[in-house]
Fold this protein.
Amino acid sequence: MRYLFGTDGLRGLANQYPLIPETVTEVCRAATKILGSHPADTMVVGKDTRSSGDMLECAVAAGICSSGVSVLLAGVLPTPAVANLVARTGSIGGVMISASHNPASDNGIKFFDHHGFKLTDEQEERIERIALTRSNGTTHHGLNLGRVSPCFDALDTYLRTLASASANPAKLAGLRVAIDCANGAASQAAPALFRGLGAEVFIINDQPDGENINFNCGALQPGGLQKVVKEFEADAGLALDGDADRITLVDEKGTTVDGDQILTCCAVDLKKAGRLARDQIVGTEMTNTGLEIALKPYGVSLLRARVGDRYVGEEMTRIGANLGGEQSGHIIFRDYSTTADALLTAVLVLDLSARCGQPLSVLGGMMQRFPQVLINVPVTDKPEFWEIAPIRDAIRDAQKALDGSGRISVRYSGTENLARIMAESSSEQAARHYAESVAETFHNTIGVPRDG
């Protein structure tokens, strides 16, 4: 059982346990032991634009340096850029200080190994055990400590890597692209990248002040971007999240394009080019059935992993897949990156649009979504629900009723005391009925009592 780490790293309210400097320092000191440390080693540290990032950056660096490992400070940088820099510099690992799409009051830390991959559950559990018991056993004292150095070319190197992913000689010349930077880590990177690729760029929310990251903007709130796309008659809109590993696209009509739609058009393109490894992609329990139906005529199959781009990435590695992602917009192109990358996704999708001469609305329309109904039920605890007869029976009854026309997915939240019940069907009425039925059973068995 993990006490500090959630679905995607360690996350919480800044300067409240466990996101306090003392704990962060212990966790980072423990991480160097797991990742492998000696005086010649370095770790990369990046951050997003939250005001608490400065405090946590100091705590992270202190923990790493106290173990005899030096720190390369990359400054404000997208999460995938940190992963890229780790591999390029031969570092033993990396730390990204970010709470992703969460509000500015939150923060967190994510770790990468020496290849630029996120750590496994087992590695995080080992870090926890060491940190919570303070059993690092470090012998680094006096002069035998790590040093801190700035990494001045981190952003430029990352942008060059992204630009080289475009196969189109004309790049994106002539495209009109609107970008919502979410006042986050890509506020400099995104405009520079797409202007460099020749696009005419319209930017919003690129003035971070430490408190406005994700505030009424970004991948989870693309409404403002949709208005900009329509106003300036843009060919596409890109809504990023705070650390730029997640994206929501907006087509030329102002309609959102989610991760499942992105996976569909990219999988078909790779399949036609003979570049889709194993003719298989990796999604999650939340991946829409419409994706499976759309890919079937092309001979492409879907493997579902646990929710979380980290688990998608692990499953991709296990089976040798080179494309995977989440409906939420975390997309992993393994031929180019070890982790989800919003800017890379945008480059490749816009490149595809330019190559095939099809607008984003056509690419997004390659799959038809099945209606999904998601209900979150507050629970008092998180027992194994398959061992609770009423819940088990309710889920089985719903699965049997939806067989052939939909499905039901039940899981606990990785960060909150919530049971997440998702029903999917060709009929929205049926999806809602079975989602509500299972949700009510959860509430009656292990749910938090309703007021009144």
In short: The radius of gyration is 22 Å. The first strand starts at residue 10 and ends at 13. The longest helix spans residues 428-446. Residues 38 and 235 are 51 Å apart (CA to CA).
